[in-house]
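Allow me, if you will, to draw on your knowledge of protein folds for a short while. I have a record of one protein: its chain in single-letter code and its fold written as discrete structure tokens. Kindly check, if you would, that the fold set down in the tokens agrees with what the sequence suggests. Thank you for your consideration; the sequence and its tokens are set out here:
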Amino acid sequence: MNDETLGSLDDLSRRNFLRLGGITAVGMSIPQLHAEAAKSHASSMIDVPFAPVKDPRVGLIGTGGRGTSLLENLLAADVKVLAVCDVVREKAEHAQSLIGKAGQKAPELYTDGDHAFESLVARDDLDLVIIATPWNWHVEMAVASMKHGKHTAVEVPAATSIEDCWKLVDTSEQTRRHCMMLENCCYGYNETLILRMVHAGLFGDILNGEGAYLHDLREELFSNKGEGLWRRTAHTLHNGNLYPTHGLGPVANYMGIQRGDSFDYIVSMSTQQRGLEEYRKAHTPAGDPKWSEKYVTGDMNTSLIKTAKGLTITLKFDTSNPQPYSRINLVAGTKGIFADYPPRIYFDGQPGGEAWGSIDSYKEHQHPLWKQEGEIAKKLGGHGGMDYIMLYRLMQCLREGLIPDMDVYDAAAWSAPGPLSRSSVANGSAPVKFPDFTRGRWHERSISQIATQS
């Protein structure tokens, strides 16, 4: 038994915990036990709308590079930011100055140590808390936020263990507060256009998808500031896919994962690690503490996911080698195929023979969010505008009392390939089952809210 398969036992009653030995002895797995015991905890958060909030009030935890970028997009969307937290006071003060320049009242700052966030989430005047901190803080902060009655939006990945995925799900259900992962790639121009084409039936029956995070981060990983202060550590701890959600989220939406289908099991394998050692050798002076680090993450991790309905997904991860940026973003069906980087499309019988075509002729399927807000989004930047579209839509859901596009079940399922890939790699690429975070309710929905938004 280890922390990758244990699931969250914190919420089990003593009686259910004592049943563990007897039930597992007759063949019931620990995730099954967790699901059984949790059925009575609370009702599902599936398709639960926000209570409408005309003017959402937000608290922001983490004002480094990512947090500051999110803040700028929030301010562009006319969102009130009342409180800001960071362990580095100068960063919090910079965020405070940006809020002041936007014409808002200066927010209260929380900078007194690692647990200053506890005072922020305890405020009674916030509707939403946004978390943009290093990965190891995501779950603790999100759980605290929900327990204090706040809806919570957390950066990716939402969690890095199966136990923590269950903590997010259980807490959301118990507190009746949404916990959404800020998976901006689901709101890209191409991703939203293709999603609407998929659900319009243009690709026929979907069979296969591919997603990835292929990004040369060596310079950033070895930096002595920003993410270089913490992100490289994961490469010394785990061998698997450290960052699955950017590539997986859009593909999961194409396939209706948690909405008529679900992830069933994963098989994962990693290459040897070479990239970070080679980069350290070329760029790190003798005597630097980085020379004491041992990197264990294979440079390229490749995983295969099978869904309950028999669809397949290839998922890749590599941030340790020179390569052009790509999330692959491929979806294939019985009538055609789309692949990104660069974007190209092919439908059965299209002019030009067996040659890729341009997606430009399919602009009539452009998502309404991009029609309405695309120009503002592009001017702000933020990963091509997807950051603004994501936050604008989240605030729209809050303001209008809508069901969120992405819920805690998506946050858990899309984060789960991280720990599950590590388990598969460690066991000779053996298949590893996905937990069912919806507790059997994945078949009750049939389409992504993003696809149907008008």
The longest strand covers residues 206-214. Residues 52 and 398 are 6 Å apart (CA to CA).
